[in-house]
Design a protein that fits this description.
Helices cover 55% and strands 5% of the residues. By secondary structure, the protein is mainly α. Strands 2-7-6-8-9 form a five-stranded mixed β-sheet. Strands 1-5 form a two-stranded antiparallel sheet.
Length: 620
Amino acid sequence: MPFLQDWIHQLEQGPGMRYLRLALGVLALAVLTLGYNLRAYKNFYPPEAMDMAQVGRNLAEGRGYTTLCVRPFSIYLVKKTSERHERGPVVEGVRDDARLHVGHPDIVNPPVWPVLLAGLFKVLPLSQEVQSQPPFRYAPEVAVVVLNQGLLLLLAWLVYQLARRLFDPAVAGLSAVLLLLTEVYWRFALSGLNTVLVLIWFVVLVFCLVRVEELGREHPEASGRVFAWSALAGVVVALGCLTRYAFGWLILPVVVYVWWIGGPRRRPAALLALVLFGLVLTPWLVRNWYWSGLPFGAATYTVLDGTYVWPGDKLARSLQPRYEVPVGVSPFSPLWNKFFANLKVLLTQDALRFGGSWLTALFLAGLLVPFQHPARQRLRYFLLMCFPVLAVVQVLGRTYLSDETPEINTENLLILVAPLVGVYGVAFFLTLLDQMNLPWYALRYVVTGILIVLVGLPMWLVFLPPRPVRMSYPPYHPLVIQRIATWLRPHELVMSDVPWAVAWYGRRQAVLITRHFMPPPEESGSPDTFFAINDYLKPVNALYLTPRTTDARFLTGWVMAGERSWANLVIDALVSRTVPPWCPLRAAPSGFLPEQLFLADWARWRSDGGPPGERREAGP
């Protein structure tokens, strides 16, 4: 009996209670993770997720930093640079300046996330077959999701440590719990994007700046440590930039903040952060310049993508973009047009939901309350400096990807400050709670529970009817893509409106459809055609179109597209059940129309395989 009484006492009053709470917390988190995955998992849907993942797999398989997802605009940049320096490889007696035969270099994605995925794919022996039943799980995708959710747990721990250093354990614990109950973070983890890793870089950056502020205020003589933490801040911004290019713009508020709070040696410390940022970034910029003639590759043109000059994905589908109007800083520039149009979207939509919870409102209200502690007040100033920088970059960097997958995309930059906004929101909530005149102390737990329920409400609703869609169709059907990939040899080329999906699931080289199949009369000399690739760069062996094209707007996407366009090709296949005579891909299997269209140079799906050189005609 004494032993049992001692054990109960240790459990209630001693460290046993802490271990019990920890065990219950881990169990609850495991149940939440398992339940959410069983309920909400579906295959990747952001194009960027599939694009970066297939680059990572190429790295793991020893093909270098190359891509199977090729954009016509990327062909233009690589080809132009190769022709200028006369360094294209010779394939069968012809110089391959576009590098479509020997491995097209990826000049779209920064390297950190693909390199991390390459390590994951190298270590884990993963099956490359898509599960035959819904939700059509794909083992490499599951591995990326698990990695992302592990990073999410790391993010929660980092937020806890940061909040504990700035405030107290109560703010830290509640901040970490609310972060794990905010459903938008879980959606980013399921999406396969690198957003959770970018959030980690931001929290680590904030921790570096907190240390710089503490040393500059409390130990002004410790200039060596101030330099070390400032240098680390510059390196972290560079790593964040190499994970997502837009993150690099945060070097501006970082330099200003270190210059302000870095103590007696603050100016050299700020300069050191800037220099280290540039040094870490330079090798990758040189690599991009070598392949494309631009420091950030195709991403250099992001600011012009989505303007009225290049609406939608017009720039990505251009083999030779034409600068038809001024693109400078004049009042009539498309840049200003894009800025003000997207600024309205940001202020009326994105800014109201970037945090994914009610904590954003608490943070905004808390701005009216000053902090006595200088570190808390100064860090909030840094956060306020980040807002306009990220807002401007998001507005000018918005492209068609934000319309393809609203909120869950790599162009959502305001989400980066959401964890820190949550910490300040929790701090303000607990300040208000301390000032509430409650009749019983236990009511504090009731009020806190209400906040937890409100913040986690989108998460709870996932477990209620209706069941979330279990796959990302339309337009991505992994099983269908893998099926058509088996009809093609590894070196053959597919043209598709979802080349990232063909590259990821099908492991075949795929090029994004050009602006035109054949040029309309008003653009009779346009080089942005199917034949510009098929006849002069590399034969296109198959065409695969999804609802991304077949479900286009009727008037602007179909009627006004003109004759011999992609829309005209789809209409002929749907209405007359024949392939137009001007299309060289004449063979079509059954079972794809009306939602999808697949054409090939010969009937590759025949049971006997058919002779390699034989071409047979068939109707859809």
